Amino acid sequence: MRFKEFVFKNTIRNKNLYMAYFFSTLTTVMTFFTFAVFAFHPKLSSGLHAAVQTGMLASAVIIYLFSFFYVLYSMDIFLQSRKKEFGLLLIQGMSPKQLRKMVFQENTIIGFLATVTGTLIGVLFSQLILWLSNVTMHVDLGFYFPAKAIGVTFISFLLLFMFISFFIQFKIPKMDVQELLKSSDLGKGEVKASAVKSILAILLIGIGYAVALTVEGMGVVMAMIPVIVVVILGTKFLFNQLSVFVVNFLKKNENRFWKKTNMLVYSDLSFRMKDNARSFFLVAVITTVAFSAIGTLTGFREMSLHGVNSDPYDFSYEVALDDESNGEKELTAFNESTKKHDVIVDQVKVMPITMTGIDGTDRPVKVVSEKDYNQATKQLGEKEVEVTKGTVSLLNDLSMPDIPQGQPIEKPTEFKVSDTEKLKIKSKDVKKKAWSTFSDIYVVSDDIYQKVGQKNVAKPVYGWLVTNGSYEQQKKVGSDIEPLKVIYAKASMTQMITDAYAPILFIGFFIGIIFFISAGSFLYFRLYSDMEVDTEKFKMIYKLGFSKKEMKKVVYQQVGILFFTPIVVSCIHGAVALTAMYALFGQGLQITALYVLGIFILIQIVYYLIARVFYFKKLYRSVAI
Question: Is residue 604 part of a domain?
Fold first, then answer.
């Protein structure tokens, strides 16, 4: 038999041994290819803003780098689990050179098959995603044959596997035959952790969290890189030192250690935590990035929609100061459109005066009479504003949080009616202003309004509340009046923001979910690589009378620790990161961000429930033989 035939037959015959590694690498190929389908999609590659296209290119580079380290680490785990096999081959007369050559050719075969299969599955999966994007998010990207994505994926991953296969030869364990054959018996026992590094893990993560949660405004941007570096370093110490330290501490409690099946769970847990530290660290960082990216995107969308929803009216129109007709043309067009689409509205009219320098600043402000303003609040169902004698009321809209931008603006204290008359300004908090405006609104008594109106012109502001008419009907009215560029339609603006964010959100969710699934498959591969050790352990205790129910409980606990340890850490990291990000815009953690975290946790729970069943069934079949 030729050497190439031996390598090929060894790979095919031992398919069970190679299957976990094959599917692990296949998932990586499929991930990259599916993203490439969207990156090269005609509508996305030419229809997005330059910054978004740059972001997609950066994402593609990140995914490829992630794929490189993912495959490299998976291959390293794969080789470490085959030490005993290498020892047997060396006994049969295989030279170290031939062993390295075999590893190179095996990984080339697996890499080629994973690339071809991952690309083919990716074609079907990407078309499914395109269909789902149209059905669920109304993002009609259209179907196309991804020839460019196929070419880029095929060439990129063949080069990646060839490169890794060449350099992985030098990572083959350089041990003698006896050590290789006894490799499954080595490495177990007590694993010690550094108390200093364990404390350092708590300090680094604690300092990173404290800085992230206390900085405000643009300080968030300045602190971002240092915080990320500190938290990542702390996370590394958390998994390879602190986790082992905690397990060893728990084992010292004899009541807990000897209770039921805890002895089996704790017996080699510290070794498992140390052995899986790199896996946990990699998964935690990847999923934190996914949480943060998607949470940020959804947060931006919610903030944009929040600004639109802060307007109390379904339609609004502020007549320009230089409009001598007071908007007759626009009002006529609006009334005709509402009748055309059977939309019934209740009109609100306010007559503010636009002024500058009235409060000691150069910013334009709106001055409105108490009577006029309260008439509008009645129609809106809001609380009226009462102006006390000798004062004016400056309204603070509670529905629009302050966004810190550099130095805080000093609040004015006096309102200048004339050179001889000045009134005290009193700030009043209202749930919502009677109309949305970027300028300050001053509510004054009717007599003061008459005085400032003698030298200034009041221009009407109209608001319309829809009493009868669906969202789709309101959008049609918005489409009719859109050419006028002056009448604001809430339904049209909401739809515009939704349409603008939909492709970006879709891509963000997709990347996050793919990263999450890849992390899950990586954890399962890591679990599968320990199956031989678990089989030997459970065979011994099974002969001593260990029941199937007890074995299932222990296995489920071990799988749960593997799957949820990095996810819990990444959820906490993600929540802190999103809280800091939203603080940049003067807002707290968004409910939608919590939904994002909840969705990913739910995905992980489902993944865990499926993985533990398959793993236990395969393990029990090997044990009960």
Answer: no
% of the chain with per-residue pLDDT over 70: 80
- Range from 84-98, 145-159, 523-537 that averages highest in pLDDT: 145-159
DSSP state for residue 458 in the 8-state scheme: B
215 assigned to some structural domain = no
Cβ neighbours of 239 (radius 10 Å): 24
The predicted-structure confidence for 177-195, as pLDDT tens digits, reads as follows 555 555 555 445 556 778 8
What is the distance in angstroms between the CA of the first residue and the CA of the last residue of the chain? Answer: 33
Domain containing 105 equals 1-185
Q: Is the pLDDT of residue 33 over 50?
A: yes
Given 470, 494, 518, which residue is the final one in a domain?
494
Residue 427 lies in a domain: yes
Neighbours of 33 (CB within 10 A): 26
Which residue reads 């070794």 in tokens?
Answer: 271
DSSP code, position 242? I
Q: Which two tokens stand for residue 477?
A: 């009215």
In the DSSP assignment, the letter for residue 389 is T
Strand stretches in 351-453, DSSP E: 353-355, 365-369, 391-397, 414-416, 422-430, 440-444
Q: Is the pLDDT of residue 589 over 60?
A: no
Contact 566, 623 (CB under 8 A): no
The structural domain count of the chain equals 2
* 422 vs 48, more confident: 422
